[in-house]
């Protein structure tokens, strides 16, 4: 048997767990050791990545979900950290009537990605020096992500993370979103304020601060728009969310 | 500048990070799993950078897959090179195994059959890896639970592999013991058959008895039979940088350092005997 054929047989055994595949490798107790190692490593990796989801679902339900995911999605990346990238979508299909489940999973995943994301410098208020506010564009740190949510998964996640009793799951107001980013080396998240998501989106699209204020003024009036934009900018600077303004 | 690896070290594990960042862990070098730090940035890389400032470093990979019949992955080599350039390790190693085929990655160290074809594949992949990294690598003998029919023994395979590629060996003494018990060969024959001059580093670890086989778990203290084999290996190889590789059920740093002192004592005994 060629090396390639042997390795494909081995893969088939690990993925399917069928005895005929084990027989192609010569059978014996050693094949079971590899089968066990394969599955244990993947379940452990998922449990490490989705720690709050394990607490919310309980180990039994989580391991059932993990086992079904492993059967459906054999790993392809060379790093175990990437395994589980679409686990959120997968659990959404398993718990279609409990939308907080997938959202807790998504927070777990996103916080993990932000934790090892690209390093960047965060501007502080003292370092802010803008020559022309008419054209200045707000650039956020690269780790910043905006995550729309339908449930109070964020409150549940925080309670689970700190060992408190989580609140019951409930739907939240339409248009609610979380901001996830890294302050220094620590991932953080909070709910976006009113208009915050819009201002971030407009800025990300390259609109200058004056243009952002003008768009806000369409709904808030000119004076309130400038106040709102200024307040948001001040908060972002204090929270380490701004990489540059200019 | 990357230093030469000498003395006695430990795998840097999360519960002991603070001691490595502070530089208070009484070890000569540290080793980390390369893939855990092949990431864009953040706290893990910050921790490793700080620890690297205090200790010579060995990067130990688990996903290169030098036994893959379909070759190595460019993106993997690129990311590893980036980490190597950043950390300037004294040693870069991986395993004589395969983990990946056709885009499937097992995340386990799977055995290679010791055939002429596999030797050609492994040597071709090692040549490519060493060229991509611009340096010599070490490859670790695996523990295994299946013994495929082959044209040669594992130690003959390793000897030819080092001769053809110029790579070195990371000798895992526990793995020799586990495989010897599982496959019924003599560990002494193994030691006699490998090129001692190629050994660049030694790993020590523990195992557990499974239902039918010894299982290499790295979650136990180094057992007496592995210490005995380490003594034999040291007598043959001379001074080789040695470390304890504990991956799970991780005890206090003091306990691991006490275990490392046993290795120091054995190595000193063998130097005196020589």
Please explain how this structure is put together.
The complex is a heterodimer of chains A (246) and B (274). Helix content of chain A is 54%, strand content 10%. Chain A is mainly α and 246 residues long. Chain A has 2 domains: 1-97, no CATH class; 110-246, no CATH class. In chain A, the strands form 2 sheets. Chain A has a 3-stranded antiparallel beta sheet with strand order 2-3-4, with helices on one face. Chain A has a two-stranded antiparallel sheet with strand order 1-5. Chain A is elongated, with a radius of gyration of 23 Å. The mean pLDDT of chain A is 94. Chain B has 274 residues and is of the alpha/beta class. Chain B has a single domain (8-273), classed as TIM Barrel (Alpha-Beta Barrel), CATH 3.20.20. Chain B is 41% helix and 18% strand. Chain B contains 9 helices and 12 strands. In chain B, the strands form 3 sheets. An 8-stranded parallel beta barrel of chain B has the order 1-2-3-4-7-8-9-12. Chain B has a two-stranded antiparallel sheet with strand order 5-6. In chain B, strands 10-11 form a two-stranded antiparallel ribbon. In chain B, helix 4 (116-133) packs across helix 5, helix 7 (187-193) packs parallel to helix 8 (224-237) and helix 8 (224-237) packs across helix 9. The longest helix of chain B is centred in the last third of the chain and has 21 residues, at 253-273. The two termini of chain B are 33 Å apart. Chain A binds chain B through residues 2-4, 6-8, 10-11, 14-15, 25-26, 28-31, 33-34, 37-38, 41-42, 45, 74-81, 83, 114-119, 182, 185-186, and chain B through 35, 38-46, 63, 65, 67-70, 73, 75-76, 98-108, 110, 112-113, 115, 117-118, 121, 144-148, 182, 210-213, 215.
């Amino acid at each position: 048997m060629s090396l390639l054929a042997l390795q494909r047989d081995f893969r088939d055994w690990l993925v399917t767990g069928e005895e005929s595949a084990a027989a192609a490798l010569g059978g014996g107790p050693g094949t079971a050791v590899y089968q066990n190692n394969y599955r244990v490593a993947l379940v452990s990796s998922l449990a490490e990545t989705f720690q709050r989801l394990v607490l919310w679902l309980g180990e039994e339900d989580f391991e059932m979900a993990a086992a079904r995911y492993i059967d459906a999605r054999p790993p392809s990346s060379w790093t175990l950290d990437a395994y589980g990238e679409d686990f959120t979508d997968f659990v959404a299909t398993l718990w279609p009537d409990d939308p907080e489940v997938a959202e807790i999973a998504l927070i777990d995943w996103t916080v993990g990605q932000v934790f090892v994301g690209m390093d960047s410098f965060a501007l502080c208020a003292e370092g802010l020096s803008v020559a022309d506010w008419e054209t200045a564009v707000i650039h956020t740190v690269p780790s910043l992500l905006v995550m729309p949510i339908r449930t109070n998964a964020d409150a549940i996640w925080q309670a689970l993370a700190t060992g408190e009793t989580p609140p019951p799951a409930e739907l939240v107001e339409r248009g609610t979103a979380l901001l996830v980013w890294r302050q220094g080396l620590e991932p953080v998240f909070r709910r976006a304020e009113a208009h915050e998501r819009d201002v971030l989106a407009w800025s990300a699209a390259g609109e200058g601060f004056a243009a952002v204020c003008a768009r806000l003024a369409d709904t808030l009036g000119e004076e309130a728009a400038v106040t709102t934009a200024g307040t948001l900018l001040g908060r972002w600077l204090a929270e380490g969310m701004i990489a540059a303004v200019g | 500048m990357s230093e030469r690896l000498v003395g006695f070290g430990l795998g840097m594990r999360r519960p002991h990070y603070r001691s490595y960042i502070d530089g208070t862990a009484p070890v000569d070098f540290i080793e980390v799993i390369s893939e855990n730090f092949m990431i864009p940035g953040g706290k893990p890389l910050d921790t490793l950078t700080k620890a690297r400032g205090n200790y010579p470093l060995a990067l130990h990979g688990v996903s290169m897959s030098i036994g893959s019949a379909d070759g190595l992955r460019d993106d993997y080599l690129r990311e590893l090179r980036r980490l190597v350039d950043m950390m300037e390790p004294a040693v870069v190693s991986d395993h004589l195994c395969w983990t990946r085929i056709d885009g499937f990655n097992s995340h386990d160290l799977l055995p290679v059959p010791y055939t002429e074809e596999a030797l050609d594949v492994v040597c071709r992949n090692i040549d490519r890896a060493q060229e991509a990294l611009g340096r010599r690598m070490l490859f670790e003998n695996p523990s295994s639970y299946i013994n495929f029919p082959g044209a040669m023994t594992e130690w003959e395979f390793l000897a030819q592999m080092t001769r053809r590629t110029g790579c070195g060996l990371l000798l895992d003494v526990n793995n020799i013991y586990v495989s010897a018990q599982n496959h019924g060969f003599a560990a002494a024959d193994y030691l006699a058959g490998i090129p001692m001059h190629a050994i660049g580093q030694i790993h020590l670890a523990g195992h557990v008895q499974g239902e039918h086989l010894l299982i290499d778990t790295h979650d136990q203290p180094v057992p007496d039979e592995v210490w005995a084999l380490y003594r034999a290996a040291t007598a043959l190889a001379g001074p080789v940088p040695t470390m304890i590789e504990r991956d799970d059920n991780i005890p206090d740093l003091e306990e691991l350092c006490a275990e490392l002192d046993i290795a120091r004592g054995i190595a000193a005994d063998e130097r005196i005997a020589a």
